[in-house]
Amino acid sequence: MRINNQFAISLIAWPILFAIGCAQQHSPGVSPSADANGYHLEERVNLHPLETTRTATTTFSEKGWDGTSIVVLLDTSASMFGSSLTLAQHEVRSLIFELPPTNAFNVVFFADRTPFFLGESQSLLASPENKKRAYEELEKCAVRGIGLLAPALEAVFRNVPRPDQVYLVTDGDIDDLEDVDAALLQLDPQKKVEFQIIQVVGDQTNRADLQKLKQISGSTKGNFKRVSASDLAK
Question: Which residue has the higher pLDDT, 34 or 116?
Answer without folding.
Answer: 116
